[in-house]
Amino acid sequence: MATANGELSAEVLRGPEGLDALREPWGGLFAELAVRRYFHSWDWCHCWLHALAEQPAEVCFIAVRRGAQLVAVVPLQPRLRPGPLGAARVLELPAHGHLPLADIACHPDVDPRSLVGAVTAALARTSIAWDLLEFENVLDESVLARIDRRTWPRVRRDLVKTCDHIACDRPWEDYAATLSTNFRSNLNKARNKLAREPAVEFEIAHEPGAIQAMLPDILQIEASGWKGTAGTAILNDPRLMDFYSRQIAAFASRGGVMLSRLRVDGHTISGEYCMVDSQTLYVIKLAYDENAARLAPGNALLERMFRSIHGQYGLRYINLVGSPPWFAQWNPVRVPVWRVQICGPGLRARVHWAARQLRGWAGRGLRRVRALASRSARP
Question: What is the CATH number assigned to the segment(s) 2-161+336-376?
Answer without folding.
Answer: 3.40.630
